[in-house]
Amino acid sequence: MIRIFQILIFFIILTVNLHGNTDEKLFKKIDLFGEVLEKIKKEYVEDVDQSEMLDSAINGALQSLDPYSAYMNPELFKSMETDTRGEFGGLGIEVGMEAGVVKVISPIDDTPASKAGIKAGDYIVKIDDKQVQGKSLMEAVKMMRGPIDSKIKLTIRRKGEKKALEKILKREIIQIKSVEAKIIQKNIAYIKLKAFNSNSSNQLNKKISDFEKKNRPIGYILDLRNNPGGLLTQAVSITDFFLDDGEIVSTKGRKSIENRRFFARKGDKVNGKPLIIIINNGSASASEIVAGALKDHKRAIILGEKTYGKGSVQSIIPLSDGGGIRLTVSKYYLPSGKSISDVGVAPDIFIEEQGQNFKANSPSDNQLNYALKLLTL
Questions:
Q1: Is 255 a catalytic residue?
Q2: Under a CB-based contact definition with an 8 Å cutoff, are residues 349 and 305 in contact?
């Protein structure tokens, strides 16, 4: 019962911190929670591991907040830290949790996930024939990691498909070259940005500088499709490349330290040349900041499909028992004051992706082809 009281204290602290509410109704709910635990212990048809059950209760409280907050027990927290430091095989997929199952935010280009045809918005309902429902997001992520070159089977539910899809993927070391760029059709600079990692802005700056010196393109296409985001600082720097002034993004949280505003510095690196940004449902987080800010400033034409809508910042917070929580601490707001969370960024020109085997910059890439027509009119 000591463990139960520890959990009850956790719920008191969590609820008071979230709502500032210490009224009688709150304590009645806490009493009710304790009563339910006792009934389960005495009446349930099978013996229950109370520790596991209470871990699920903690995780349930966190996941009721949003799809990105989650609990990691000490064993899972330690293993996740080890995986982060060492080499492991991954799938190249950014995921969240929705309705108790894993939802794909974005498959990263040229990774096992994208090669297998997994799409943003897919629901992963089974991992190696094991049900995902009832597991935490971090537990599901742990299941998807494994030895390099080992295989994994994902059972997918997709909107518009009556039957579940089964995908066999081989785990790889995920190494993302964040920037690919080249001159295409009638001297247009095409830049594919796959992620916002620590060196993305430097890579992009070099590519733009080279283009401006050697090619002097007539316009730019920035492809943010299936880019799951990354570092906020990189999103700010890359947006700043195309602006002379003005606000880029702000973050707002409960703590004053989380409230920040970011502004562009003078100097548009492409000298105001036409800019088209291509987005889709797999464009998330930092991608949405770039597309949303440049749309608000009317600096770019946004083309494609609405973005995912992940406009929040998570922190990993260690707990006293050796576990940890992933908790949303602030949200992103565009210059217009609009939140990205659960809304996303809508394109100026809606062009639906064609075909099931979409690959950026292929001859059948209808979204890129439309962007090229706009720049060559």
A1: no
A2: no
